[in-house]
Amino acid sequence: MNASNEDAESVDAFLERIASLKDRREREDEERTRKLEEDILQGRRERQARRAGRSSIHLASIAQESNTKTKSTSNRACKIFVANQTLLTSLLPTICESTPL
């Protein structure tokens, strides 16, 4: 009778240990997931900040190009002038003159 009580207690202790390990694993998984989500969001914020910085630099360079009427390699609409008349307006990905020929 004494041996069966010890067996029952060891089974109960085993089951309790399994339950506590399961709870611990779930807490650790939740912590890892939370940290991963924070890292992902931080990375997104950093990329957006870099893009915003590049956008403002790119817009400033476009403004400077249009002010100085120099050649441009951006995909902007270019007009080809002949005798002060516009013959063609198109979106050209190549270098184009922004002043009449």
What does the model show?
This protein is α+β, with helices and mostly antiparallel strands. It has one helix spanning 2-68, and strands spanning 77-82, 85-91. It has 2 domains: 2-68; 71-101, no CATH class. 66% of the residues lie in helices and 13% in strands. It has a two-stranded antiparallel sheet.
Q: Secondary-structure map with pairings?
A:
Blueprint: H1 2-68, E1 77-82, E2 85-91
Antiparallel strand pairs: 1-2
| Rg value | 34 Å
Rounded average pLDDT: 74
Q: Outline the low-pLDDT stretches.
A: 84-94
Structural class, judged by helices and strands? Answer: alpha+beta
Number of strands: 2
- N-to-C CA distance: 109 Å
Strand order, sheet with most strands: 1-2
The count of domains is 2
Count of helical stretches:
1
Descriptors for this entry?
alpha+beta; 2 strands; two-stranded antiparallel ribbon; 101 residues; 13% strand
Give a short summary of the structure.
The chain has 101 residues and is an alpha+beta fold. The chain has one helix at residues 2-68; strands at 77-82, 85-91. The chain has one helix and two strands; from the N terminus they run αββ.
